[in-house]
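The authors assume throughout that readers already know how a fold can be written as discrete tokens. Each protein is reduced to its one-letter sequence and a matching series of backbone shape codes. I therefore recommend that a typical entry be quoted early in the introduction. For illustration, here is how one protein appears when written out as sequence plus structure tokens:
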Amino acid sequence: MSQHDYLDELIPVFTPLLAIKEASRCLLCHDAPCSQSCPAETNPGKFIRSVYFRNLKGAAETIRENNALGAVCARVCPTEKLCQHGCSRSGIDTPIDIARLQRFVTDFEQQTKMKVYQPGRKDKGKIAIVGAGPAGLQASVTLSNLGYDVTLFEKESQPGGWLRHGIPEFRLPQSVLDGEISRIVEMGVTLRCGCEVGKTMTLAQLKDDYRAVLLTVGLSKGATLPLFNDASPVEIAVDFLHRARAHSGNITVPQSALIIGGGDVAMDVASTLKVLGCGSVTCVAREELAEFPASVKEFTTTQALGVSIIDGFTPTAAVGNKVTFKHVRLPGELTLTAEQIILAVGQHAELEAFAGIQVQRNTVETQHYQTADPAVFAAGDIVQGDKTVVYAVKTGKEAAQAIHHYLEEA
């Protein structure tokens, strides 16, 4: 396939007529279970009602008041496990396609140049946020609305974190992410890219200059397995996705690829390879289908592209481009050979620069998002909990409120 395909969204958008038709299937539940099931409290019950009554402006306002990354979540959120899982319509036929309705509304917001966010007051002092991924971006909006002067520090040359450097463009176009970030900057949030704690500045310096510091650095480094030290060529999944995204899909791909892992990152790698023209793509995961880690949306999209997915096998040996697996429950082995091997076996955070912060296996120890240092807070993937974008938004909102509560009492 061509480079153009990498830049086109795989899932088509609703037309206005189809959006109204889908919203009209809503049962308009009192105390809507879909809204109860959204970690970010985006309130789909309310915005679907607005779409139903042709009030797209009101629908957009509902989404934005609750979720600064509404257009992103509409594309990458595992809705089948969350809001759509709670949908009352499931007992009749199929749940409302909440994600596509949310995408339709946020596309309308972008096309009509709606301005839901207003510039913040900045009268309650300065807050530093380290990491401009989803948790940091959401926290900056919540804190700005509360009256704080927020500066986001990002080590990369552009903000967005995993949203920019990991998720393929056919799932999350760069223009959508840029639109989300421009709204946040227009509120008065200061963005400082190319600033890395431990190199450009220290945590101690941030604490001196700001009333509180929020760490939202995410899990940016891909893990490897010693088993693959003798394998070649091997690439870490996050590095491959970063490379594909940086070049807008204009990269050379092998004719055959073997991906180790079964999460959403593995699915993103597999679908990227297929979209870019790789003839044979195989994913091997140690989890069996009943507890497969990838979201249903990612899994089915990847399968539809022609990726072979083998479940229940774990690698036992790797030499050159040949990998041997054994089944996790049943006797039996499997040996596969591919031109390229890609490891999607987890990610970890780089937290060495944050001296004095208690860390246990990629997780910063917090109490209501506050670390042992009362002026330092943490949110996003580095705190305990789910590692999805919508949960990052949730923790960003809650950490911002925790900072506000701490400073109000100080």
